[in-house]
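User: quick one, sequence for these tokens?
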């Protein structure tokens, strides 16, 4: 074979090698893209998410809009993330509707376990509180940001006023009132912002449903 034939043979081999290398590169890129797409695709499972867990305060009972995770051990298809509906119920796979409003997490766990025993043997269930949206206090009137605020922990009147942006220029700081409804009975508490440093007992700890009224 002459010099020209040898050159052509080596040229063909180089083309083959280059083509093979490109094919391998394309396969690698395709596999990487598929893996990335799979990782970004949202899960369709009923299994509870790994969202943050709330720390219920002492005496906590489940309320409207609270977010819960119901976790069944070895029965993942029955597990679910749920929100307490306006009718006070939650819906779970297989079990369907079950009442949750006004129950402690332990009471709800027992109720769910009792219902689950109709479908599976010796169910083990946990109730995890993800977010407490039912415990709110309200502040209205002459403050920076009036409205409802979540009561996620012990909160005094002064702390709520600070959270709401403080008193406005025209607020009647001596005439603030806290309204509390307990068992259908309305109770009022007076709060003098100007003298709270002398009479600190008036800086009461707020309860869910309390309304702080700041007149102007």
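Assistant:
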């Amino acid at each position: 074979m002459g010099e020209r034939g040898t050159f052509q043979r080596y040229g063909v081999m180089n083309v083959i090698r280059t083509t093979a290398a490109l094919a391998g590169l394309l396969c690698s890129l395709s596999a990487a893209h598929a893996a990335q797409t799979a990782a970004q695709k949202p899960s369709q499972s009923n299994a509870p998410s790994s969202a943050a867990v709330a720390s219920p305060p002492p005496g906590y009972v489940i309320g409207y809009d609270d977010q819960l995770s119901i976790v069944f051990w070895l029965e993942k298809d029955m597990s679910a993330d749920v929100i307490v509906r306006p009718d006070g119920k939650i819906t779970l796979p297989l079990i369907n509707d079950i009442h949750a409003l006004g129950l402690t997490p332990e009471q709800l766990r027992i109720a769910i376990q009792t219902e689950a025993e109709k479908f599976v043997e010796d169910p083990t269930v946990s109730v995890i509180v993800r977010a407490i949206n039912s415990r709110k206090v309200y502040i209205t009137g002459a403050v920076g940001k009036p409205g409802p605020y979540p009561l996620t922990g012990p909160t005094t009147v002064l702390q709520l006023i600070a959270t709401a942006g403080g008193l406005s220029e025209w607020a009647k700081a001596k005439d603030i009132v806290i309204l509390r409804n307990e068992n259908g009975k309305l109770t009022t508490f007076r709060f003098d912002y100007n003298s709270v440093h002398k009479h600190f007992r008036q800086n009461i700890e707020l309860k869910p449903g309390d309304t702080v009224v700041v007149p102007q």
